[in-house]
């Protein structure tokens, strides 16, 4: 999940109000903490020794809840990705206090001033995290990547691993990574393009202090190391999804294409941001041309993300293909069990079927219940993210009351219109009749309420 970064703590006061409004848990109940401390002392006894493999992790420098580590080796023309996933299922038993609390939360919630974890830090940032300070239990998926980038699940096992290094996106060097890391990522990305997949991943927004006084919302472009690392996770999730679907079980992430109304709105937004979009060009074709280092195109990527129908979870159903439009394939979430409840059960199912065992009854039952639980958690996370964006926009505009802005109406009804500011990644509403979608408007900022996270414009 993308959230606005706030290193200067300009949003601190408002973030406290957001945490209170959305009842973001400040910690864990004592019985859950006690269960985590007990679980952290559990000694693995069902795991193969794979400490000889040169696993490393690659994450933001500040991350301590490390779900994934990887090692890569050639196998003829293919590449074998050994993708180690934190073995959360080893520490958490069905129905125990940790499990019950995780079902209440659903996923980790992220805000600029910190996160509310799915599991207590004794596990998520300690015994279960794949940190390089000692051996850790993991589920290791071996994924075969052929020269065309097709990913298949060759095997899965519980194993003890030892990460050699905690690498960071912003300072990793090629010599620190496996020799075939870039090639594997290239193959996965080539396969993605061949499928016609278009995944829009807008750059992170950051509140920055301007020289002298005031604030601005800037974009931090995605680093190549981030994109390459994401390709490894994508390949693993695709391979797991294919294996689950072949065995007529699983929990899948599904998403439809944007509808005609959403595309029409995006065309207006593109015009407002000065992005050329010929009538004969599809949204998918335009997406492949977007450059996140250009501010206007970065803003448009955010607009695309907000305009889509949203993803959901779906258990396996006979006769139904669980399709994810952005990935252009059946897709599952398996690589972040420290942060998403659903992943723990997908990992358990994939581990069993890869070893010729039936999926446990408790896992199959969980697949039926998880879509509603995860939808509730995703909705809460989305509402919090929207509130953070509204807060950042209010802080950003608080010094500009009385100024005039160019905007384009993207939606309209009898009472007014939703507008996209042309020079900022801000979507607002203005009242008034007779506004048609696509209309160019001059708006004056009349009021900002940082506490309520609202801004008000009037037509000039």
TrEMBL record:
One of its GO terms (biological process) is mRNA catabolic process. Residues 47-356 form the RNB domain. It holds the Pfam family RNase_II_C_S1. SUPFAM superfamilies: Nucleic acid-binding proteins (SSF50249). InterPro entries: NA-bd_OB-fold, RNase_II/R, RNase_II_C_S1, RNR_Ribonuclease. It comes from the Bacteria. This is RNB domain-containing ribonuclease. One of its GO terms (cellular component) is cytosol. GO terms for molecular function: RNA binding; RNA nuclease activity. PANTHER family: EXORIBONUCLEASE 2 (PTHR23355:SF37), RIBONUCLEASE (PTHR23355).
């Amino acid at each position: 999940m993308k959230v606005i970064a706030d290193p200067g703590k300009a949003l601190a006061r408002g973030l406290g109000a957001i945490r209170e409004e959305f009842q973001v848990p400040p910690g864990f109940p004592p019985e859950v903490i006690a269960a985590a401390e007990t679980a952290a002392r559990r000694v693995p006894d069902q795991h193969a020794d794979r400490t000889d493999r040169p696993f490393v992790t690659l994450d933001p420098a500040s991350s301590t809840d490390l779900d994934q580590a990887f090692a890569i080796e050639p196998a003829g023309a293919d590449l074998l990705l050994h993708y180690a996933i934190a073995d959360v299922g080893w520490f958490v038993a069905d129905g125990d206090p940790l499990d019950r609390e995780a079902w209440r939360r659903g996923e980790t919630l992220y805000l600029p001033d910190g996160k509310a974890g799915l599991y207590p830090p004794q596990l998520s940032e300690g015994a279960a995290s794949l940190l390089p300070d000692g051996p850790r239990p993991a589920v290791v998926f071996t994924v075969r990547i052929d020269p065309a980038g097709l990913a298949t699940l060759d095997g899965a096992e519980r194993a003890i691993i030892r990460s050699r290094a905690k690498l960071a996106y912003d300072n990793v060097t090629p010599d620190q990574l496996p020799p075939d890391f870039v090639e594997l990522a290239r193959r996965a990305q080539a396969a993605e393009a061949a499928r016609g997949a278009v995944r829009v991943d807008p750059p992170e927004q950051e509140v920055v202090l301007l020289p002298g006084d005031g604030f601005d919302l800037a974009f931090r472009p995605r680093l190549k190391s981030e994109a390459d690392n994401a390709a490894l996770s994508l390949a693993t999730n695709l391979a797991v999804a294919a294996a689950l679907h072949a065995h007529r079980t699983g929990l899948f992430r599904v998403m439809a294409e944007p509808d005609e109304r959403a595309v029409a709105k995006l065309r207006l937004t593109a015009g407002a941001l000065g992005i050329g979009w010929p009538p004969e060009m599809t949204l998918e074709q335009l997406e492949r041309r977007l450059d996140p280092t250009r501010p206007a195109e970065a803003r448009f990527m955010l607009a695309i993300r907000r305009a889509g129908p949203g993803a959901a979870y779906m258990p396996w159903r006979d006769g139904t293909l669980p399709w994810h439009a952005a990935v252009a394939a059946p897709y599952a979430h398996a690589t972040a069990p420290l942060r998403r409840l659903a992943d723990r059960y997908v990992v358990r199912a994939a581990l069993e079927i890869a070893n010729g065992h039936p999926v446990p009854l408790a896992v199959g039952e969980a697949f039926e219940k998880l879509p509603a639980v995860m939808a509730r958690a995703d909705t809460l996370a989305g509402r919090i993210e929207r509130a953070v964006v509204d807060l950042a926009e209010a802080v950003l505009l608080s010094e500009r009351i009385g100024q005039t802005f160019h905007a384009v109406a993207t939606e309209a009804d009898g009472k007014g219109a939703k507008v996209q500011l042309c020079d900022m990644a801000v979507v607002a509403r203005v009242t008034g009749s007779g506004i048609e979608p696509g209309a160019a408007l001059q708006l004056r900022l009349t009021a900002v309420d940082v506490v309520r996270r609202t801004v008000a414009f009037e037509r000039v």
